[in-house]
Amino acid sequence: MAASDTPMALDGLVVLDLSRILAGPTATQMLGDLGATVIKVENPKSKGDDTRSWGPNYARDSAGNPTDLSAYFMAANRNKLSISINLSSEEGQHTVRQLAARADVVVENYKPGGLEKYGLDHATLLKAHPGLVYCSISGFGQTGPNSAQPGYDLMAQGYGGIMSLTGAPDGPPMKVGVGIADVMCGMYATIGILAALRHCDKTGEGQHIDLALVDAQMAWLINEGTNFLTSGKLPERRGNAHPNIVPYDAFPCADGHVLLAVGNDAQFARFCDAFGMSALAEHPAYATNLARIENRAALTAKITTALADVQRKDVLARCHAVKVPAGPIHTVAEALSSDQAKARDTVVQVEATDTAGGSVALLGNPLKFSRTPVTYRHAPPRFGKDTQIVLDAFEIKPKAD
After folding, report:
1. CATH architecture for the domain at 263-324
2. pTM reported for the whole predicted model
3. How far apart are CA 332 and CA 71, in angstroms?
4. Which residues contact 308 (CB under 8 A, 6 or more apart)?
5. Contacts of 317 (CB under 8 A, 6+ apart)
6. Each residue of 186-238: pLDDT tens digit?
7. Tag placement on the chain: N or C end, fewer CB within 10 Å?
8. b vs e for 275-310, b when ≥16 Cβ sit within 10 Å of the residue's Cβ?
9. pLDDT of 307-343, one tens digit each?
10. Vertex 110: Cα angle to 362 and 392 (nearest 5)
């Protein structure tokens, strides 16, 4: 396929993407952003990736009609080429096997064993192509008593424990506001694929990567998971508060809320000075972080009282003046239109000639490379639009009778 004029870290890498929804597409989009050629195989029976129909927000064509580019789909499918292939047909299986022979990486998120009947499972393709890196993403992994269960982000958040930590202390368990289990699983997949490619570069050996949403979600329980393993005590739901740092929370003020993240005793002393509470910093109940944790409720009440009549901008100004971490709580609109977001290219306009205005707005990749920058070569593709281009470029032949 045609390469970008900009040198990219994964130039020349070919990824065969058999995944859909979010975890797999997150991983393959990242590889595409870094320069890989990503071939997204989509099922004509379902009119492509399920998320194409996950509205209500869609890019529209020049006539104002909604396209198959839902906002959800576009979030994880730029820098890919879409080809329409029916895997349940012998012709489709033959085509995908030929593409796998030309690929460096295969990513799939079928149920464990779901591709065996097509001859597209990891055992079959690795036997035929020993240098292939084959990444399987599923809800519970290829082994274990729940391996046959389907995997969705909500179920992973519930099973993996994060919902028990999320939400108000007196409220119900709550999922995170976005599909974070899927996204983090996709990030782990990217790391695993790059590590396996490094091994392949040195030895010529490919391998199978078995990755589960639930495994990944449990891994990023991080300090709360380790808190439990160390103490045997179940973590509590604390809303916006931190289990190991106080004060670290959202606090009400005269015209809204502010975030405080006071990470050490010196910061706490400066914070107290700034708000007329110098005596607190010397009081044995609050002088150290451990003491503040033990007296969390009392300290939170004192800080709430001190900030109650102070305007948000003044709280932030006082904190920043003494180098105490504090910040606003932005809406999505405020975050994406902020000066910081503009300076860091958080939102990018990517050319899409078949949409109104000729482009789509997407969230940019946060990686900033000094030598091999991320590029946005392809907008999220319409279903099947690149089928013939890919088949011709990779010289895919029809199945012989």
Report:
1. 2-Layer Sandwich (3.30)
2. 0.95
3. 15
4. 252, 253, 254
5. none
6. 999 999 999 999 999 999 999 999 999 999 999 999 999 999 999 999 999 99
7. C
8. bebeebbeeeebeebeebeebbeebbebbeebbeeb
9. 999 999 999 999 999 999 999 999 999 999 999 999 9
10. 65
Residue 121 falls in the annotated catalytic set:
no
- Residues with Cβ within 8 Å of 352's Cβ and at least 6 positions away in sequence, in order, are 59, 69, 358, 359, 360, 379, 380
Tell me the CATH class for 14-220+341-393. Answer: alpha beta
Residue 272 to residue 7: CA distance in whole angstroms: 51
> What single string gives the DSSP state of each residue in 210-245?
EEEHHHHHHHTTHHHHHHHHHH-PPPPP-TT--SS-
Q: Are 54 and 142 in contact (CB under 8 A)?
A: no
The b/e string for 122-141 (b: 16+ C-beta within 10 A; e otherwise) is bebbbeebeebbbbbbbbbb
* Tens-place pLDDT, residues 350-382: 999 999 999 999 999 999 999 999 999 999 999
Residues 378 and 134: their CA atoms lie apart, in Å, by: 24
Q: Of the residues 33, 49, 68, 182, which is catalytic?
A: 182
Name, in order, each residue with C-beta under 8 angstroms of 257's C-beta and a sequence gap of 6 or more: 250, 251, 312, 329
The 10s digit of each residue's pLDDT in 67-119 is 999 999 999 999 999 999 999 999 999 999 999 999 999 999 999 999 999 99
Helix orientation angle between 23-33 and 180-203, rounded to the nearest 10 degrees: 50
| Displacement of CA 387 from its chain's centroid (Å) | 27
Indicate the domain borders of the chain: 14-220+341-393, 263-324
Q: What is the pLDDT of residue 3?
A: 54
Asked whether the predicted pLDDT for residue 35 surpasses 80, the reply is yes
- 301-to-3, 123, 226, 298 alpha-carbon distances in Å: 59, 60, 29, 5
Question: Per this entry, what is the length of the chain?
Answer: 401
Structure tokens belonging to residue 306? 């001190």
Joined tokens for residue 381 = 């593709």
Report yes or no: 250 and 240 within 8 Å, Cβ to Cβ: yes
